[in-house]
# Entry
Amino acid sequence: MSVNADAAILFQLQQFDLTLGKHRVLHNINLTVRQGEKIAIIGPSGAGKSSLLEVLYRQQPQQIALCPQQGGLVDMLSVYNNIFMGGLERHSSVYNLLNLIRSFNTPRAEIQQLCNELGLEDKLWHSPDRLSGGQRQRVAVGRALYRQQPVFLGDEPVSALDPLQAEHILQLLIKRHNTLLVSLHNRRLALAHFDRVLALRAGELVYDGPAAALTSNDLDAFYAS
Amino acid sequence: MRPDSDALVLLNRLPGVRPAHSSGRRLRRISLLFIAIALACIFLADLALYPTDPWRELGRIGWGFITPYWADSSTLFSALGQTVAFALLALIISVPLGLILAVFYHWRPVRMLAAAVRSVHEIFWGLLFMQLYGLSATTGLLAILIPYTGVFAKVFAEMFDRQAPQPTLAVSPLSSRISRYAYTLIPQSLGEMRSYCRYRFECALRSSAILGFIGLPTLGFHLETAFKQGQYSEAAALLWVFFILIASIRFWLRGWLLPVYAALALWLLPQSPPLGSSYAWQFISQDIWPRALQQGDLAGAAAWYWREFSQVAWPALLQTLYLTQIALVLTGVIALLCYPLASQAISGRALRWPGRLLLLIMRSTPEMMIAFILLLLLGPSGLPAVLALALHNGGLIAFLLANHSEQQPQRADDPKGINRYLYLHTPRLYPGFLAFLFYRWEVILRESAMMGILGIATIGFYIDSAFEEIRYDKAFFLIVVAAALNILIDSLSRRIRRRAGADLSAGVG
# Structure
């Protein structure tokens, strides 16, 4: 469980403030994230979880697979292409343009395999607007997995899934990424799968410590107003 | 940093963040300013009424309008076919070109190129290419597709700006720009692009028709001939066919039929000399520059340019601008007066279809044809141009407003009739209306410059004369000056729209 304290630092924020107009979104955040850490971010809505993830994303966009809250799916494209676009940088522009017209065998096999793992095996050629909320969310996760990056930042990536699926998808994400920062509403999942928990409230970091030291009651307290 | 939506909502609620405490007052101030400018322009512009006998002629035109007649259906349909062919092929080429430019719109030279090509009216492009390729398919195609490419580049780039950023965040920043756009912003805006192309196709049909006024074998050519000979029934037949063509676009313009239409269009177009004739190079490298410049006499060239600017271009520009400002305000007045006619929410079911037909006729008749008719009636002053521009653009904006007005939420206790118009719909639509109007500002300017072709003293008149006198250096200089004014007004309009908060989500160019 424990992460080597000498591991390279991935993200660092020192007394970080973020203000939009007169509205304070994040205040006095001190945070160091090292390679290999598995971190859950919890807190009530509007606490600044999404903003924190975005600030972190901008520090290292090249090695992050990002799964934004609305999923960032393109409804005009098939599930296949929505996942394929996670790997655009691995091919030439011409290859990518041709793939829009007709899919190539290699990525099709890879993405079919990925969809099997995500429980989307028969949805490859559907468009995301014809899918349920939970299926859409798994497509967004599929794209993040297809990015094949060492770091995963997810903004409530499993919020629309049933507990069993959520469990399975989180395990898949943890297996395929070295470092993870995931905002979660489900406190049980946060305690079960992550080493470290960040709790945000009104833009401030009110807890930053090992998940093992927390009980469910502690977590409830972070949500109390 | 992109603010998240909750933050933005909160931001708007905070006191003191909004620059003024009444949005309505700000819009009213801008409207009054433009009305005052237009009133001043009335005294400065040449709007003389000539003693003609308009009523008799108007009666004959009116009679012709309700008794359309055409003896020889084959010329009618070949003119119609050519009109569609030019418009369709020009669009098929300019849409992908515009799309490519839009992807690279962050690059300043691309933005400048797009602004430059769209600032010159189709008619002037037509006149330029006519010197090179004569009355050929090449001339007609290039005249439409070059400015349209610039328009598409701008409008598509604006569409990309409005799309949600999340899909772009979820792909690698290391992927190529083309790949990224092909998978995110382009499919995201596909629906908007499709409906915009539809609208632009209607514009291209009008552009194609009026290219007939400079001699290409489209509807405008036969219209001009018929009008000049007083054959109003024949002219009316052409116009009615054109109206039906535009009103029925949505029934026959289908994506899967495009290849068939394109093949037909290629077959229909007139013969064209091969491109890249040696004269083109001489035209670009010598004919469009003053003699002094060709001989390397810079001082002489400067003197020549200054003389042309102060004696010809400047007074012509002022006249063009006066007419534009009057036409702009009149367009607004007509749009606000006419839109309730076509809105079922205000006028009820009975008036809706006659209202729609009126607006269809107003917006489908190319402004050049309205001006041409009014010139016959009122004599050669700025008045016909102003009226024609206001009728055409007013009809166009009224049509858009009527559509928006029908989408307004309705409550059972809402007032009816005129009160509904005054207290609900007009105030709600007003910011959008101003945005539409300011979008049309540069279009009206470009069109009032072009009206000079008909003999009205705007800059187009001097451009046309310079071409007739084979003084290409002068014609080219005047086109550049007119384009520069157009780019200026375009950026001014954008600034005002932003300042007034009168911006629409839908791009209407």
Residues 298-338 of chain B form the longest helix (41 residues). The CA atoms of residues 20 and 26 of chain B lie 8 Å apart. Residues 1-20, 504-509 of chain B have pLDDT under 50 and may be disordered. The two ends of chain B are 30 Å apart (CA to CA).
